[in-house]
Amino acid sequence: MQAYAPVQNSLVDRFGRQVNYLRLSITDRCDFRCVYCMNDNPTFLAREDVLSLEEYARLVKVFVELGVAKVRITGGEPLVRKNAMRLFEALGQLPGLNELVLTTNGSQLEQHAKALKQAGVIRINISLDSLDATRFRRITRVGDLAKVLRGIAAAKQAGFANIKLNSLLMRGINDDEAVDLAAFAIANELDISFIEEMPLGAMPHARQDSYVSNDQTLGVLRARYDLIASTANTGGPARYWQVPNKKSKIGFISPHSHNFCEACNRLRISCQGELHLCLGQEQSVDLRPLLRGYPEDDGPLKQAILASMQLKPKGHDFDISRASPAVIRFMSHTGG
Ligand code: SAM
Ligand code: SF4
Predict the structure, then answer these.
(1) Half-sphere exposure of 41 (CA within 13 A, CB side)
(2) Cα R_g (the chain), whole angstroms
(3) Given its phi and psi angles, is residue 321 left (phi above 0), alpha (psi -120 to 50 degrees) or beta?
(4) For the chain, what is the domain count?
(5) Does residue 313 contact residue 262 with C-beta atoms inside 8 Å?
(6) CB under 6 Å to ligand 2: residues?
(7) pTM (two decimals)
(8) Total Cβ atoms within 10 A of residue 137
(9) Distance (Å, rounded) from C-alpha 172 to C-alpha 262?
(10) What is the pLDDT, as a whole number, of residue 6?
């Protein structure tokens, strides 16, 4: 009698890691041009190559049926996608999706924060790399700090709890702002995470020249605050510290100095429907032909997603000292 391998019906990879978190990019476009993320004149995808909002909603439904409970909408800048709010409203109603969260540069939050809360988004991460308007413009090339600060205020006003700032420090550009950014977060009862720059996409600057290690940033912050190592674990790559007698936590996402792959529970989908098994490796599975080729049948899509678990690598391959980027894709393409 032939022995059949058991059919796995949930997202567990070769290393026994259970995947329950999906990060979905809904556009590669953005109203900023951050120097670590994009070139100053990026080429964006043609509209027909990007999935429709209905296709994203279908993909999320399928992933939730396979055990995903948390979805982060990202980009590019997700809030510049036309009618993005329709997608948030649809996903906010999806049974089994326990956590619908968003990463944004904050530029559009002033208009959308309230509607996002009403749609069922439970948490927002907002990128903020400088509190100095001139520097903010230099880093984002076009961004308006005042608008982002109004966006953060609007998110607080809308009642979002645990708003988290994401800050990326670059040597010689904003690496002297760690304490100011942390103080801003503490004063506004926000969490903040410092992210190490990753070598995604070719840039005019050498990543090893701008790279600031989170160990260095932690040292600077510990000289100012009596930080207490927090046991908080989001299942993600950040290590957190608590500021005594304050609501804020300070986190560090350190792909270089502290590899975080062992507990990786996530997948990413690019705005054109490529399933990326790891941010720092090239393996991907193109789901768009299955979405469009089988409009009424989720079976082939599910099979491909389950089979992809065999491709999820053990870890990323970032090496900041290499001259060439570890991965050719920009963060804005895969979704940060
Ligand atoms: N536009 C939104 C924003 O900026 O928050 C969402 C997408 S953005 C790609 C998500 C996050 O990726 C941002 O916090 C940004 O700082 C981070 N990011 C972009 N390029 C990066 C890189 N090369 N290394 C590390 N983080 C990067
Ligand atoms: Fe846009 Fe976010 Fe990339 Fe900045 S980090 S260019 S805001 S996608």
Answers:
(1) 0
(2) 20
(3) alpha
(4) 1
(5) no
(6) 30, 32-34, 37-38, 75-77, 105, 127, 332
(7) 0.91
(8) 15
(9) 32
(10) 41
Q: 117 with 159: CB under 8 angstroms? A: yes
Q: Which amino acid would we find at residue 34?
A: C
Residue 218 lies in a domain: yes
Is residue 3 in some structural domain? Answer: no
* CATH number, position 224: 3.20.20.70
Residue 179 lies in a domain: yes
Pocket, ligand 1, Cβ cutoff 6 A: 30, 36-37, 74-75, 77, 103-105, 127, 166, 168, 195, 197-198, 200, 331-332, 336
Is the pLDDT at 161 greater than 70, yes or no? yes
Instruction: Round to whole Å and give the CA distance between 304 and 329.
Output: 22
Atom number of ligand 2 nearest to Cα 33: 6
DSSP 177: -
Q: In the predicted model, what is the mean pLDDT of residues 260-286? A: 86
Give the range of the structural domain holding residue 81, as residue numbers without chain letter: 21-334
Residue 5 lies in a domain: no
